[in-house]
Design goal:
The chain has 261 residues and is an all-alpha fold. The chain contains twelve helices and no strands. It is elongated and about 95 Å long.
């Protein structure tokens, strides 16, 4: 029976009876056979392009791929539909689902965030155009998730340089993360790592560079304690301050640096 069914389906694919294909495409779709439905919608979408069924076929073509979790193709078809048929009753939902497809392709924070950025852009534009949409609540939720993921990505990248002991690069990345996301949930840790990166860079510098780098460390110390006076990192922060202060005091008085160690 399965073979006969496959044979009948292949005959249907080769058929030029487009009304039959249209009807069968919906039968497969509503039966949950999204692969066959999608193939039939692919077959007829160009045939119905100039008819009053064009947007219906295009929407369910995209939906068939969404149901298959083929988000790349689905986003392509949803995007084409709302760009080409802005007056369609399917246009608003298609615009939302374009963003949703990018959202579903967004990887974990440690990987490239191209789809995350695409989702953010799509949801921001959608909310600007349709602030009262029935999809606005979901779009707002997904947008917040994607922005949080970029914060996580920034944190992971900045911390990686610190973990690798690349303190110059760490200082740049940590500053960039704090500048890009000043309200980040990682702010205390990032500012602590920034202070510690400056301190370790100073500690391991050649003598000619130590003064300016310990001065930079002291600047970061005052920034940190001003914002987090009761930090969980207070003990280590105080230790770095004591070492930095001894060095700067010694330089001011001409004391030999070896006496500080």
């Amino acid at each position: 029976m399965g073979f006969a069914s496959c044979s009948q389906y292949e005959k249907l694919r080769k058929s030029t009876d487009y009304p039959l294909k249209y009807r069968k495409a919906f039968e497969y779709y509503h039966a949950g056979d999204f692969i066959r439905a999608g193939q039939l919608f692919d077959d007829i979408v160009s045939v119905y392009r100039a008819t009053n069924r064009a947007d219906t076929v295009a929407f369910y073509q995209a939906m068939s791929y969404l149901k298959q979790r083929n988000y790349e193709l689905a986003s392509h078809y949803f995007g084409r539909l709302f760009r080409e048929s802005r007056q369609s009753p399917f246009a608003e939902e298609s615009e939302f689902l374009t963003g949703y497809c990018f959202y579903m392709q967004s990887p974990r924070a440690s990987l490239d965030q191209e789809n995350t950025n695409a989702a953010i852009e799509a949801f921001q534009i959608f909310l600007m155009r349709h602030p009262e949409s029935t999809f606005a609540e979901d779009a707002t939720k997904y947008l917040a998730e994607m922005k949080d993921k970029l914060v996580d990505k920034s944190y992971i990248t900045a911390k990686l340089y610190y973990d690798l002991g690349q303190y110059k690069a760490s200082i740049i990345a940590l500053n960039n993360s704090l500048e890009d996301y000043p309200e980040t949930k990682y702010r205390e840790e990032l500012m602590y790592l920034l202070l510690r990166s400056n301190f370790l860079l100073a500690e391991n510098s050649v003598p000619a560079r130590r003064l300016e780098r310990f001065q930079a460390t002291m600047d970061e110390y005052y920034s940190f304690v001003g914002e987090f006076p009761d930090s969980q990192y207070s003990r280590d922060v105080q230790r770095m301050f004591n070492r930095t202060d001894r060095f700067l005091q010694a330089r001011a008085t001409g004391e030999e640096e070896d006496e500080l160690n």
